[in-house]
Write a structure and sequence with these properties.
The complex is a heterodimer of chains A (160) and B (451). Chain A is mostly helical and 160 residues long. Chain A has 8 helices and no strands. In chain A, helix 2 crosses helix 3 and helix 6 packs across helix 7. Chain A starts with a helix and ends in an 8-residue tail after the last helix. Chain B is 31% helix and 10% strand. Chain B is globular. About 2% of the residues of chain B have low confidence. Classes of the chains: A mainly alpha (160), B alpha/beta (451).
């Protein structure tokens, strides 16, 4: 009888001793990408012009205008100079679609996000957003036009 | 406000002053001025489009082409000799409406060939006599027998040799094209390993850049303040570029510095303004694309005073379908060269007396005509690699170049189309670098070595 009690007690203890809390760990799903959105192909002149025109005027370029602009780009040896000059010409066009400086400064974070989406077709990283908000906050003379000029003539914009 | 143009000019002068001291080349080795350069500037005119020796050097006018016994010189800025007496069709229209009946006034009192050395019989010795192959040979000194259209020259160009071995700035080296057709814009550099775009020439096809398309779509571009606006743009762009992790992809550029880029933009703006104000030194008669191209070239010379300027013409190629048009284009090409040489000597003090001018067609044209007749019932001529289309001439004038010298003859051809690259290299003091690179045609030699 005494042995039976001891066995029962040990069995009970062993069962109780094995019981422990079980934890289930999980992670939230996040999209992982590089800063440049994996852009590694150089745009052709026509691709660049078509995208630039759409970004600047918010409408599609006509075939006639595309042919004329493509000829112009071919007529200048240094393509960076050609593109930068063309962007500067677009900036002189009253129809160019740029947010007002008041709109930009009203919500810098939203402006930067919209600008990355417009020119780079991606969202800014948190670090990029922080840089821009700080940079623009500390430089009240910088206009939305100058920001657009920087984006439209930056390396990433030449690639897709 | 800082005057950017003056700043750049001062910087250029400072750079020029330092050129006498040894300095490190882009290729990484030390360059010491050898003192062998014959001139500080070279202008090479590709009198291209396909020129027959018969109507050019030998002044046979209609005699060797149409069975009409009329001879005469239509290139009297380049060659001595009187023009034809009758059947004048190559000039401008007369007051009473005779098409082409009034020859264009002579510009040079002494023809270029008498001011310098004439090679009346060079050979285009390799490859087919196509325009692009000819132009490519002219600027690379190499016959790319596998050279295709829409493909950059197979071997390095004289532009790249100069930038790599002489350390020339991008804005010191220019190629001015007569248009954007026929792959012309691809001639400003090769993609040869160790050379390529970073040593390429700046290029304009000015009749496009400043023509209808440019007037409509480029003129009036915004000029930003260099410090208040462009500096922050550069800062912002530097941040964007730093964040862009390029994966081995190169953005096409000619390695112009930021200052050079701004200088070129200022040049574009100035040229539009001078065009509007009729201030550009176009030739007295400017009624075709070659003359307009040469007019804009004078602006490039005036502004940049390049070490090397190569200009491409091609209007004579109308000879495929119009012999009359060909004679007009020949006469206008001569007018263009007379104007260019006169402009250099009288309007650009930094280049006057310090510039060598070289003229050469890229190839010739056939001996036998095709079946197309023009408005004067004259036959037209193609260029499809017969022996006559391999015959060309070259002339050069400038410091250290013998005057009134003729080297070779119809019976004794001397020189080759591939010779121009080593010739330019010799004038600008880098002949041994170019020869030692081992990338010229095997027969190519400086024309000076053939005298």
């Amino acid at each position: 009888m005494r042995h039976q009690l001891i066995i029962l007690l040990l069995s009970l203890l062993s069962v109780l001793a094995c019981k422990e809390k079980s934890y289930v760990y999980d992670v939230n799903e996040v999209a992982i990408g590089t800063n440049n959105g994996d852009k590694n192909k150089l745009k052709s002149n026509e691709q660049f012009l078509s995208i630039l025109y759409a970004n600047m005027f918010q409408k599609a370029i006509s075939p006639t205008e595309m042919a004329a602009l493509a000829s112009l780009i071919r007529s200048i040896g240094d393509k960076q100079i050609a593109y930068e000059t063309l962007v500067a010409r677009f900036m002189a066009d009253g129809a160019v679609a740029i947010p007002s400086d008041a709109e930009m400064r009203g919500d810098l974070a939203a402006f930067i996000t919209a600008t990355y989406k417009r020119f780079y077709v991606r969202l800014p990283s948190q670090a990029e957003k922080t840089y821009w908000v700080n940079y623009l906050s500390s430089r009240p003379n910088i206009t939305a036009e100058l920001v657009y000029l920087a984006f439209a003539t930056s390396d990433e914009y030449y690639f897709y | 406000m800082i005057n950017r143009r003056k700043f750049i000019q001062k910087a250029a002068l400072a750079a020029g002053a330092s050129i006498t001291a040894p300095y490190i080349l882009p290729s990484g080795r030390l360059f010491a001025q050898t003192g062998l350069a014959m001139a500080d500037h070279v202008v090479f005119v590709l009198f291209a489009g396909g020129v027959r020796q018969q109507e050019a050097i030998y002044q046979r006018y209609l005699a060797d082409s149409q069975g009409v016994d009329i001879e005469g010189n239509v290139l009297y800025n380049m060659l001595p000799g009187e023009g034809p007496d009758i059947k004048i069709v190559y000039g401008v229209d007369t007051a009473d409406g005779q098409p082409g009946g009034q020859p264009i006034d002579r510009i040079l009192s002494t023809p270029l060939s008498e001011q310098g050395t004439l090679f009346p019989e060079l050979r285009y010795s390799g490859g087919g006599t196509g325009h692009y192959g000819g132009l490519s040979t002219g600027v690379s000194g190499y016959y790319g027998t596998t050279q295709g259209l829409q493909q950059r020259p197979l071997h390095p160009t004289i532009f790249e040799y100069l930038r790599r071995h002489r350390g020339s700035k991008a804005t010191d080296i220019w190629f001015i094209g007569n248009g954007i057709g026929g792959s012309t814009p691809l001639l400003n550099h090769s993609e040869y390993a160790g050379y390529g775009s970073r040593y390429g020439a700046n290029f304009f096809a000015p009749t496009v850049t400043f023509g209808y398309e440019g007037e409509r779509h480029l003129k009036g571009f915004k000029c930003y303040h260099p410090e208040e606006e462009l500096d922050p743009v550069r800062q912002m762009r530097a941040f964007l570029n730093q964040n862009f992790l390029r994966q081995g992809q190169a953005i096409p550029n000619l390695n112009n510095t930021e200052e050079e880029k701004e200088d070129i933009k200022a040049f574009i703006k100035s040229t539009f303004e001078r065009l509007e104000n009729n201030e550009i030194a176009f030739p007295p008669v400017t009624d075709n694309g070659d003359l307009a191209t040469v007019g804009f070239t004078t602006e490039v010379l005036r502004w940049f005073k390049p070490q090397l300027t190569v200009v491409n013409m091609n209007s004579v190629d109308t000879c495929h379908s119009s012999f009359t048009g060909y004679l007009k284009a020949l006469h206008r090409g001569d007018h263009a060269i007379g104007h260019l040489w006169n402009f250099i000597q009288t309007q650009v003090p930094e280049m006057a007396g310090n510039t060598a001018l070289i003229v050469m067609p890229e190839h010739g044209r056939n001996l036998q005509h095709n079946s197309i007749m023009d408005e004067n019932d004259w036959f037209s001529f193609d260029h499809d690699s017969d022996e006559n289309s391999r015959r060309i001439f070259a002339m050069m004038a400038g410091p250290g170049i013998d005057a009134n010298l003729r080297v070779g003859s119809e019976a004794n051809p001397i020189g080759d189309a591939a010779d121009i690259v080593p010739t330019i290299a010799q004038i600008l003091g880098i002949k041994s670098d170019v020869i030692n690179a081992g990338l010229l045609n095997g027969n190519a030699r400086s024309l000076f070595d053939r005298i």
